[in-house]
Design goal:
Elements lengths: L8 E8 L13 H13 L5 E8 L3 H11 L3 E5 L5 H14 L4 E5 L5 H4 L13 E3 L3 H10 L5 H4 L5 E4 L4 E3 L25 E4 L26 H14 L3 E4 L8 H14 L6 E6 L6 H8 L3 E9 L3 H6 L6 H11 L4 E8 L6 H12 L4 E6 L7 H4 L7 E2 L6 E3 L5 H18 L2 E2 L3 E4 L3
Parallel strand pairs: 1-2, 1-3, 3-4, 4-5, 8-9, 9-10, 10-11, 11-12, 12-13
Antiparallel strand pairs: 5-6, 6-7, 13-17, 14-15, 16-17
Helix pairs in contact: 1-5, 2-3, 7-8
Length: about 425
């Protein structure tokens, strides 16, 4: 193994694709900024940080930008849309100077993803995958000047390729969200767009298609005091509102109560947009009351399917009576979007079409997502009988239990035609239909 540089010149890299017409306003790469804030707050000697938070960059352009900075450590914030570009950039960096430490973090930085045929060579180039929470893991990587495989094995929450197999280090213990540095309080987030707000991490459910379900039950909650500081800091960056990245507004009652108190104390959302998800069966009056006080509430309701067999296959349930009542109530004061998935294992074209038409009958926006095989979800949690066949780069489902390849292609054409006819939007991974 080539000896690694020991300096603390760090380049953090995030990449979003060209704005998808079906997606919301510009948002900052929150995971990237959280890592940056943690590093800056640590006050490490000789630390230099450069952040490339870019949109639609070509691999050769990104490589030249990184090369000009000459970092000792490069950290890639990796999603399914950015991994193919980062793959090419990392290869160029490695050929130029293999003494740099190359770290991949984010949802696509998983052994299962790097085992996909297009990315297998990347296993030899990426020194570290951060598979747990990234803030303190990355801080420990940068803090130590002993940059060897043996040293990295002592850092929790990493996956390391030894040339033949993956070595997973110890699971990183849960941290306290209130102790993490805020990128908004540190004024390192670009102004405008949509802010990103997080009140807890994790999810109590284990829906097979969702990466949230692989995380621990959401016990860590940001306090009212901490959230007041965050909302006050958001005012400075002047976003149009906030996108909540919690698994659901109403899936952690402690977190919701702290948010409600902080919102009331600051009045932040009175004239702002708030985009969030709710779990329909658990919505209660105080959740409705809170959202009714928001200037522009946009609520996503994850239905996924009305078919009980498909839901059972994905470890999901539905209480239909509550669903109808709660959607009607929320629709009185909020912009509601029902969300379903096309191509779920255990579903069929016939039952999906029934779900589509029923969901389309509600006076709400409808979002239809193409099922994707995420590396911490279906990719590692589906049994063989699901017969998954998916694109190894986009991760879009090609065929599976209940769906032939021809059926999925036909349904894609159907959804695109219907979206065009209704004045909706067609994105890379979803179709959006306005209220009927």
């Amino acid at each position: 193994m080539i000896a690694k540089r020991t300096g603390r010149k760090v380049c953090l890299v995030g990449l979003y694709p060209k704005r998808d017409p079906a997606m919301p306003d510009r948002i900052s790469n929150h995971g990237l900024r959280m890592v940056e804030a943690t590093l800056r707050a640590a006050n490490l000697p000789d630390l230099e940080i450069a952040v490339l938070d870019v949109v639609d960059a070509l691999p050769e352009e990104l490589f030249e930008e990184i090369l000009a900075l000459d970092p000792d450590i490069v950290g890639f914030s990796t999603y399914l849309w950015s991994l193919p570009v980062f793959d090419q950039v990392a290869r160029r960096l490695h050929r130029h100077d293999a003494s740099r430490t190359i770290v991949f973090g984010g949802p696509s930085a998983r052994p299962a993803m790097f085992n996909q045929s297009p990315f297998q060579e990347l296993r030899q180039i990426a020194d570290i995958l951060v598979t747990g929470e990234g803030e303190h893991a990355f801080l420990e990587i940068v803090s130590s000047t002993n940059r060897s495989m043996e040293a990295w094995k002592s850092i929790p929450g990493l996956a390391l390729w030894n040339g033949e197999t993956w070595h997973n280090t110890l699971v990183r213990p849960l941290g306290d969200l209130n102790e993490l540095a805020s990128p908004y309080a540190m004024k390192i987030v670009p102004h405008g767009g949509l802010a990103v707000l997080q009140t807890y991490r994790g999810c109590p459910f284990t829906c097979a298609y969702c990466e949230w379900g692989t995380m621990e039950s959401p016990k860590r909650v940001r306090t009212e005091e901490h959230l007041i500081e965050e909302l006050t800091s958001l005012e400075i960056s002047n976003p149009a509102g906030a996108l909540m990245v919690d698994a659901g507004l109403n899936l952690n009652e402690r977190a919701f109560k702290e948010l409600a108190k902080a919102s009331k104390a600051t009045g932040y959302f009175r004239n702002k947009r708030l985009i969030c998800e709710v779990y329909p069966a658990k919505i209660q009056k105080h959740h409705m009351d809170f959202m009714s006080q928001v200037g522009e509430p946009l609520i996503g309701v994850g239905l996924q399917s009305f078919d009980k067999t498909a839901l059972s296959t994905m470890e999901r349930t539905l209480e239909e009576e509550k669903f109808d009542v709660h959607v009607a109530e929320m629709n009185r004061f909020a912009h509601v979007a029902i969300e379903i998935i096309m191509g779920l294992p255990g579903d069929t074209p016939e039952t999906f079409r029934k779900t589509f038409w029923r969901a389309r009958s509600y006076p709400c926006t409808l979002r239809v997502y193409h099922c994707v095989v995420l590396p911490s979800a279906l990719m590692v949690r589906s049994p063989p009988e699901h017969l998954l066949n998916y694109d190894p780069i986009s991760l879009k489902m090609r065929s599976c239990l209940g769906w032939t390849a021809e059926a999925i292609e036909q349904e894609c054409r159907f959804l695109s035609t219907m979206a065009d006819q209704s004045g909706g939007a067609i994105g890379e991974f979803l179709w959006v239909f306005p209220p009927p």
